[in-house]
Specification:
Two copies of one chain form a homodimer. The first copy, chain A, has about 350 residues and is of the alpha/beta class. The first copy, chain A, has two domains: about 1-125 and about 280-315, Isopropylmalate Dehydrogenase (3-Layer(aba) Sandwich), CATH 3.40.718.10; about 125-280, Isopropylmalate Dehydrogenase (3-Layer(aba) Sandwich). Chain A is built from eleven helices and twelve strands. Chain A has helices spanning about 15-25, 40-50, 75-80, 85-95, 105-115, 150-170, 190-200, 230-255, 265-270, 295-310, 315-340; strands spanning about 1-5, 35-40, 60-65, 100, 125-130, 130, 140, 175-180, 205-210, 225, 280, 285-290. In chain A, strands 3-2-1-4-12-11-5 form a seven-stranded mixed β-sheet, sandwiched between helices. A five-stranded mixed β-sheet of chain A has the order 6-7-10-8-9, sandwiched between helices. In chain A, β1, α1 and β2 (about 35-40) form a beta-alpha-beta unit. Chains A and B meet through α8 and α9 of A and α8 and α9 of B.
Amino acid sequence: MRIALDAMGSDRHPEVEVQGAVAALREVDGDFEVVLVGDRARIDAALAAAGAGAVADRISVVHATERIEPGESVSAVRKKKDSSIVVGLGLAKQGEADAFVSAGSTGAVMAASLLMLRPLPGVDRPSVATILPTAGDPIVMLDAGANVDSKPYHLLDWARLGAIYAEDVLQRPNPRIGLLNIGEEPEKGNELAVESYRLLEASGLNFVGNVEGRDIAGGGACDVLVTDGFAGNVLLKFYESVAGLMVKLIRKELAEQKAQVHLDGVFRMLDYTEYGGAPLLGVDGISIICHGGSPPRAITSALRVAVRAYRTGMVADMKRTLSEAHAIGQRAAAGTAGGNA
Amino acid sequence: MRIALDAMGSDRHPEVEVQGAVAALREVDGDFEVVLVGDRARIDAALAAAGAGAVADRISVVHATERIEPGESVSAVRKKKDSSIVVGLGLAKQGEADAFVSAGSTGAVMAASLLMLRPLPGVDRPSVATILPTAGDPIVMLDAGANVDSKPYHLLDWARLGAIYAEDVLQRPNPRIGLLNIGEEPEKGNELAVESYRLLEASGLNFVGNVEGRDIAGGGACDVLVTDGFAGNVLLKFYESVAGLMVKLIRKELAEQKAQVHLDGVFRMLDYTEYGGAPLLGVDGISIICHGGSPPRAITSALRVAVRAYRTGMVADMKRTLSEAHAIGQRAAAGTAGGNA
């Protein structure tokens, strides 16, 4: 297996990417190689500094002269044909890589993935899935901000995609699907939530009902949480920031009081780098997006996700599930039509 | 000034309400009385236990035979005419009380307030405002869950109402209004956010633009944050739960390690009881809703808010501002019509 890694994406590129890749090749099980995509001279220097050693023969470099900057999005994808994102996704498209990982502009990685890998048949809107850490097992939430003004059938698609991601990559058999809402009862929430509830209930998925904001952090409410990208993105960004803020405040207090306390367990719960990497689900390939501010550890986590997604055949599973769901939908529609005739 | 306090609302009624009232009468500045509404025998027992002492002559009791239970909502308001909520709001309606405070069913308090106090002229949908603690000054957020599928002009109304609440009750001159969104630029977000941005920009309010989920906890982004009740409620419930969970986890760790550390400053930032009480803004009166799980301290905080709202003439300020805004809107509309003729 070969993973194309955008070496120019993060705020501290290419050092972060190179260090993350070297660590992944040492730590992560699975027979895989990493193709670093970007400025060859800078990558080579970072590789020399990182001391790849025994894993050096599993690393290669593909040169790309351009970089899509953090603010840039769709138009940059069309203009910068020799950017690390476009070149890296090109490798995936041409079958020269089995997955793509980038800590570059989220908008650009999404746009380029849609354009170059194409949505899976039957998927109207691919969705960014993210991991929410909890006091129990982490939750997969989607959509994390790729899609707003979504329709109920989008949420249904995302529930199916998220379920396969949870099953294949997180090894959660028969994952429990929750709908983010503002009350427990089926009739609670906005129009989107009420109608999505109805679709999810009839979907054959392991739907456990509405999940409120208060049910998330404690863990255990569900494995996959579906919502429109507006609420999802607000929640995700808030979670990241409040966790970071609290850790900062507490560390400061502990330092001032010269306290000998170990809160690593609590801090780890809040540590996104443990789960770094949000896959774009619903495209015909593996494309994983990391924060621009990612440390090497988050890149390593994203590469681990890519390996698991490939080894478990996640994309093929998604294709099969979606075509089955659509076949059932067509049969149901045909049955209804027959009944009406 | 007299405040009608629903003595039967909280999970541990009437003790919590009685203790909160006694503390408020001792601690909160302002010449006010509290009318406890509910089961007289139980209230009297709680009063005897609380030892009202010097403040006893500022407390009176109005008997009510019924209680609206936490799950109940609109229909209970119509059925239970002698419930503490309906009787208490009746005192406010008849001018026998200047404000109403309850830790009972949020849905019932809202429904009864709308029904009995009536919306202010020009307010289509009154809104529950809540306080979000931050590392800096707390932020007023509305809507906190009363309204979903909102329109842009609802958010504009709430911005006006929230601004007056922030100015009068929180003493923030010229409060900065933010729009909860998933990006910085005006064109970001869903249809509601894009159109609301346009209205807020033209409103004459001190609008500071979009505020993302990540901008909240650190403080300083704005004084008033407006959003639809769906995202608002998800955010609020998540914030409350994640704060509670973290404090619990950290306290447990500290206890296990027998650590002599004082994290009270950090914990206080996350302590909702400091700010207890979410006012329903846009009705013709002062109606403040507390959590069912409120401790006495949260009731005290809510009574403090009621005193400030009354002393500063908050409701009159809202009436004036709304009628001015509508007059300007009508002139603008007339101007436009003239220009088109």
